[in-house]
């Protein structure tokens, strides 16, 4: 049976999985959501005997129903190969009373690799299936990790170009160096003089600009997205939560059907939404623990039922979470509104026009499986040091946010018995200064790459190739623009002879 995707803002707009992947964003700024989420048709006991690729197929075949078995297995096989530094792809490690799901063993040492390794294959397969002749332009905003992972995935992929916008002063030095040294004739990286929300808003505006899209078509191009607004990003992320559960089962840490907690450091809400979708598929989850940093708009939402982005934007040591407009929350709002596109559209218009909306009490009651809290900058640094000293385990600031919030959850609820998986979303090597300063301030005099050497000594873990590769790499992307000039930059890159600034 074919699974249909619908727009969160227009009940009449539908698409197959491949078309939804190609479009990225639905009309009127809506997001594509599955009309239903099918239940897993393989038992957890059977899944526990499978490797990551096999589990991926069992999950993704249910969500991407217009892909043939051959097409989907080709995409999975091509994505989850030797570019990951462990055959496990996403290993679980036990520390400080929790199970850390390490999602940073891919090419760019962040969790975005888990989905962005496969998205280029899903996208190019979708283009062939739908007889697309235009060149696909991946247009993406990044708060740090999506950009590099997308660039690595799409660099020199035939029939594609990729343009990444990032906040010039809003990512770590390592994150920026990873992006601006990216090779590939089809790549463009641009810093903007604004924050991530400015970059994301600018990208969404271009997707919805009918005149711009007509111009693109006349030049032989069409937009698609590598952000988590694209369901081609979300579906692969569902996999690793199912996989983590089956590893716990295989190791005898839980029994089939036993509920677990899942803690996710959350900015744009895509990663935790993938866990929620996996639970709709049958994954037994007790609580979804949404961990925020000082930009605690999601904590306030889960506490009050009001989403209010009208607040100071805080630059933190966990920059991938420095977000005030959590785009994927819209998919959850649509669900708790009874899959009512008109009701959701009203709320999103309020967010766009006033910067705030409030959900009804019946909608709020449907969020009982979610727990929200946040960790301050001091708490994040303290958690990195505490877990290092107790377990010898070094985590990045995003993971530390989740680890600290899990401690708060245990204290608030008394739930210390439920097996808990914490999504470890990035390697500490991406945030060497924040990590090493948390452990000992005396490291602050060293360069970021000297700090990587020191981190290796402390952790006993070799420096990832992703870091070695950029030590002396040439900076190839030097463009910086105002947020108002993003469209001009796009046009100049795609048609330099037709469009002059």
Describe the structure.
The chain has a domain of 246 residues: Rossmann fold. The longest helix has 20 residues. The chain is globular, with a radius of gyration of 21 Å. The model has no long low-confidence stretch (mean pLDDT 95). With 501 residues, it is α/β, with parallel strands linked by helices.
What's the topology here?
Blueprint: E1 5-7, E2 14-15, H1 17-23, E3 32-34, H2 44-47, H3 52-63, H4 69-79, E4 92-95, E5 98-102, H5 112-116, H6 119-129, E6 135-141, H7 145-154, E7 160-167, H8 173-180, E8 187-192, H9 196-208, H10 210-218, E9 221-224, H11 231-250, E10 260-265, H12 270-280, E11 285-292, H13 297-304, E12 306-308, H14 329-336, H15 341-354, E13 356-358, H16 361-365, E14 370-374, H17 377-391, H18 397-413, E15 420-424, H19 432-439, H20 448-459, H21 465-468, E16 479-481, H22 486-494
Parallel strand pairs: 5-15, 6-7, 6-9, 7-8, 8-16, 10-11, 10-15, 11-14
Antiparallel strand pairs: 1-2, 1-3, 4-5, 12-13
Helix pairs in contact: 1-6, 3-4, 3-11, 4-6, 11-12, 17-18, 17-19
Question: How is the biggest beta sheet arranged?
Answer: 6 strands, mixed
Rg: 21 Å
At the third CATH level, what is the topology name of the domain at 92-109 and 232-459?
Rossmann fold
Helicity level? 40-55%
Count of individual helical segments:
22
Content of β-strand: 5-15%
């Amino acid at each position: 049976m074919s699974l249909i995707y619908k727009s969160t803002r227009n009940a009449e707009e539908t698409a197959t999985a491949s078309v939804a992947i190609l479009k990225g964003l639905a009309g009127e700024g809506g997001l594509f959501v599955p009309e239903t989420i099918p239940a897993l048709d393989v038992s957890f006991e059977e899944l526990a005997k499978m490797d990551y690729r096999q589990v991926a197929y069992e999950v993704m075949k249910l969500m991407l129903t217009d892909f043939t078995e051959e097409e989907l297995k080709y995409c999975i096989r091509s994505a989850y190969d030797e570019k990951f530094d462990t055959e496990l792809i996403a290993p679980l490690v036990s520390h400080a009373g929790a199970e850390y799901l390490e999602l940073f063993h891919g090419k760019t040492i962040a969790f975005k690799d888990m989905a962005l390794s496969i998205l280029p294959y899903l996208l190019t397969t979708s283009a062939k299936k739908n007889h697309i002749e235009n060149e696909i332009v991946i247009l993406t905003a990044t708060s740090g990790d999506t950009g590099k992972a997308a660039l690595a995935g799409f660099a020199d992929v035939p029939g594609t170009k990729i343009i990444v916008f990032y906040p010039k002063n809003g990512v770590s030095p390592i994150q920026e160096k990873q992006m601006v040294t990216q090779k590939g004739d089809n790549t463009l990286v641009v810093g903007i003089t604004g924050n991530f929300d400015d970059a994301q808003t600018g990208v969404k505006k271009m997707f919805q600009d009918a005149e711009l899209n007509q111009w693109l078509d006349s030049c032989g191009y069409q937009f698609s997205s590598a952000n988590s607004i694209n369901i081609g990003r979300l579906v692969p992320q569902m996999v690793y939560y199912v996989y983590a559960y089956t590893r716990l089962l295989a190791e005898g840490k839980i029994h089939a059907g036993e509920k677990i907690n899942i803690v996710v450091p959350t900015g744009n809400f895509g990663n935790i939404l993938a866990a929620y979708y996996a639970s709709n598929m049958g994954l037994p989850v007790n609580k979804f623990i949404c961990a925020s940093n000082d930009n605690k708009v999601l904590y306030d939402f889960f506490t009050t039922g009001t989403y209010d982005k009208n607040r100071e934007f805080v630059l933190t040591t966990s920059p991938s979470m420095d977000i005030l407009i959590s785009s994927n929350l819209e998919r959850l709002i649509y669900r708790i509104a009874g899959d009512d596109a008109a009701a959701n559209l009203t709320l999103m218009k309020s967010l766009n026009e006033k910067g705030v909306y409030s959900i009804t009490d019946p909608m709020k009651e449907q969020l009982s499986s979610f727990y929200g809290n946040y960790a301050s900058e001091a708490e994040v640094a303290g958690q990195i040091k505490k877990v290092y000293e107790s377990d010898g385990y070094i985590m990045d600031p995003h993971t530390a946010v989740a680890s600290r919030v899990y401690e708060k959850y245990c204290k608030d609820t008394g739930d210390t018995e439920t097996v808990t998986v914490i999504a470890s979303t990035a390697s500490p090597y991406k945030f060497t200064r924040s990590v090493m300063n948390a452990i000992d301030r005396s490291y602050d005099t060293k360069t970021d790459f000297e700090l990587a050497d020191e981190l290796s000594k402390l952790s006993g873990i070799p420096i990832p190739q992703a870091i070695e590769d950029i030590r002396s790499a040439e900076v190839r992307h030097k463009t910086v623009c105002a947020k108002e000039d993003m469209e001009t930059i796009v046009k100049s890159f795609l048609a330099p002879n037709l469009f002059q600034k």
